[in-house]
DNA sequence: GTCTATATCCCGATAGAC
DNA sequence: GTCTATCGGGATATAGAC
């Protein structure tokens, strides 16, 4: 019996609209053309078949090289995975950090912007995002921890935006952690089902999910999930 | 270099609260004790390390058997995966079908019930749910198609509930497919992060996500995502 | 830098004793 | 039904020619 059965070859994937996205933007520009092409091939293979079902031959075939060529550019298959996941996490963190910076904007506008852009990013890079979210088990413990640290920092950025709105009374009293998690959950899950060829553009989805996020925190929306009695005078607050 | 490195052994996982859930409820009761125990061990290994990173030896070690014993009960490793994924999908479909049946309930109550229960199910069976959602690539094409058919039927059940509320005016005019997808997205994503030991009980999350679902369809909620101009007199409708 | 060839390892599945 | 032992195959990674 065959030990593994990658359902799709790199050649198949290169032509399949299911696995098209903008992940080739992500690679460090100090890298040469060949390693960048290898990452682009690898990200598709990992996304479609999984890290462990992908062979180094699969990755190399995607750029018309033979198996050994990979090791001139990367020391191991795991490091190819790490490079992809690290790049994805760092890029998205840098992206949303910039968006969260202008504290002059209203809390609502800030939330709308950061959620819509985060969503758009995940839609546009949905193939890489899929690997970033669902192939973490392929990393070594050290690399996994390194990625986790970036994830925590990303969560902190979002929680700060939500907490600010709660603090200044723009948002109602809610469990910041729980509500933030639900907001991010929607965007992250895009990696599972989104396709660029589908009927929702990244921008449309970004708008839609930003609307949802605002509904989760809006005073007059029928969404609960509030902290029962942490702040007694919260009910007395009015929207500015 | 080692070919694979499953980060956690079956023994580790059995004691790890991260991988505790109620998935042992799922297996067909016509099966014997040993195959059911094997499925329970396998679902944890697949969830923690991935299908391809899990060896048949890993699965068997989880129930103190040696490698060969698996093949008395299952013809292949892939069929162990299929059994898990099929059981998970069939159970959840049967569950929500029953809930969607009483057409006497109001559209809003029906939606609240089906979403909260679907969410609770995914929380309580989050380890199996993780395998059901993220290990589909390990299936043979035939088994994959079989599972996809159940998924489509599940989606249809939810879309029918949402569409009914739109048709009878309980819900506002929305893109049924898009909004339903967002509702399910939240519950499905639980497999990625949820833990029974965490601060959210399945029931609490079920309530919270049902609130969110209702906010997505409620007339007076500030959530858009509506179909622009499909039904001209929709704006004239009032909630019954 | 890329190729071919290969070292080394270990997995899925089977055979046969008990 | 479970064990031990093993077959066959294919994986990662390396060596050395070009």
UniProtKB/TrEMBL annotation, chains A, B:
Keywords: DNA-binding. Pfam families: TetR_C_24 (PF17932), TetR_N (PF00440). Gene3D superfamilies: Tetracycline Repressor, domain 2. PROSITE patterns: HTH_TETR_1, HTH_TETR_2. It comes from Acrocarpospora phusangensis. The keyword DNA-binding applies. This is TetR family transcriptional regulator. One of its GO terms (molecular function) is transcription cis-regulatory region binding. It comes from the Bacteria. Residues 55-74 bind DNA. Residues 32-92 form the HTH tetR-type domain.
């Amino acid at each position: 019996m065959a030990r593994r059965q990658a359902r799709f070859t790199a050649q198949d994937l290169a032509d399949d609209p299911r696995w098209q996205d903008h992940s080739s933007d992500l690679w460090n520009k100090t890298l040469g053309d060949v390693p960048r092409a290898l990452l682009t091939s690898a990200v598709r293979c990992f996304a479609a078949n999984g890290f462990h079902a992908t062979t180094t031959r699969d990755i190399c075939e995607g750029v018309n090289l033979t198996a050994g060529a990979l090791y001139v550019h990367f020391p191991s298959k795991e490091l190819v995975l790490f490079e992809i996941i690290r790049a994805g996490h760092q890029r998205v963190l840098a992206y949303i950090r910039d968006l969260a910076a202008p504290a002059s904007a209203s809390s609502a506008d800030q939330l709308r912007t950061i959620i819509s852009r985060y969503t758009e990013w995940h839609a546009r890079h949905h193939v890489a995002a899929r690997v970033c979210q669902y192939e973490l088990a392929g990393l070594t413990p050290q690399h996994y921890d390194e990625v986790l640290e970036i994830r925590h920092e990303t969560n902190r950025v979002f929680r700060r935006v939500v907490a600010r709105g709660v603090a200044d009374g723009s948002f109602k009293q809610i469990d910041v952690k729980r509500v933030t998690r639900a907001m991010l959950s929607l965007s992250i899950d895009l990696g599972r089902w989104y396709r660029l060829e589908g009927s929702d553009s990244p921008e449309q989805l970004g708008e839609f999910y930003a609307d949802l996020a605002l509904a989760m925190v809006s005073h007059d929306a029928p969404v609960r999930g509030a902290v029962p009695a942490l702040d007694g005078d919260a009910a007395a607050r009015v929207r500015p």
